[in-house]
Amino acid sequence: MYKILILSAAICIAYLPSILSIPKSIPNMSNCYGCSFINNLELDKLANRKLRTILRDKSLTKREIDDQIEDIIRTQSPSTNEKFRTMKDQDEQKEIELQRKIQLVAEKLSPEARAALQQMQAASSNKDLTVAESVTKFQEIRKALSPEIQTELAGGLKEILSTQRVAYLVGNGRGISGHGEQTSGNSGRGEQTRGNSGRREQTRGNWDPYARIIHLI
């Protein structure tokens, strides 16, 4: 399977808004993409349960996630397998375009900011890191950044955040302008509740399924 549920170089964008505390205005984020992905595949109940468990397990390496998801798909019907492969093939083109945009942003950054972005990309593409270890790597990189570099990275990545695909990746932190409040949980689930005020609140884990399903957006 082609990097289906592993971190890619693009995953750094999912963390930069919360890492850098960047205010953001994001369009409709009322659905958990991980849940939509599972539902669209029409898995049987057992496979559905297994996949959701994998999506929430931060102790797995990206390579293990990749392999386990592939194993689950192989047990499903031919139509589900075909749908999965079609989604994978279509997304390869989307990933190429996103990588192109990231490269364009990197070229405009100062050497120090570019180096920080490259460190994030290296951590995100390391398939032998667990999900938890990847998060720790991002936190370590963030702590080493000066406020000036944080601001520069934030400004550069705003160019990519203009697309809904990447805007939805900014999973952690607050700041969904006009669409309620988002807070980060620990389970990796995407849940929604509606308070008395009618304001929608979405809780997403600090390793949200959507962020890990980079290649199926």
TrEMBL record:
<feature type="region of interest" description="Disordered">
    <location>
        <begin position="177"/>
        <end position="206"/>
    </location>
</feature>
<keyword id="KW-0732">Signal</keyword>
<dbReference type="InterPro" id="IPR003677">
    <property type="entry name" value="ANIS5_cation-bd"/>
</dbReference>
<feature type="compositionally biased region" description="Polar residues">
    <location>
        <begin position="180"/>
        <end position="196"/>
    </location>
</feature>
<feature type="domain" description="SXP/RAL-2 family protein Ani s 5-like cation-binding">
    <location>
        <begin position="49"/>
        <end position="151"/>
    </location>
</feature>
<protein>
    <submittedName>
        <fullName>SXP/RAL-2 family protein Ani s 5-like cation-binding domain-containing protein</fullName>
    </submittedName>
</protein>
<feature type="signal peptide">
    <location>
        <begin position="1"/>
        <end position="21"/>
    </location>
</feature>
<dbReference type="Pfam" id="PF02520">
    <property type="entry name" value="ANIS5_cation-bd"/>
</dbReference>
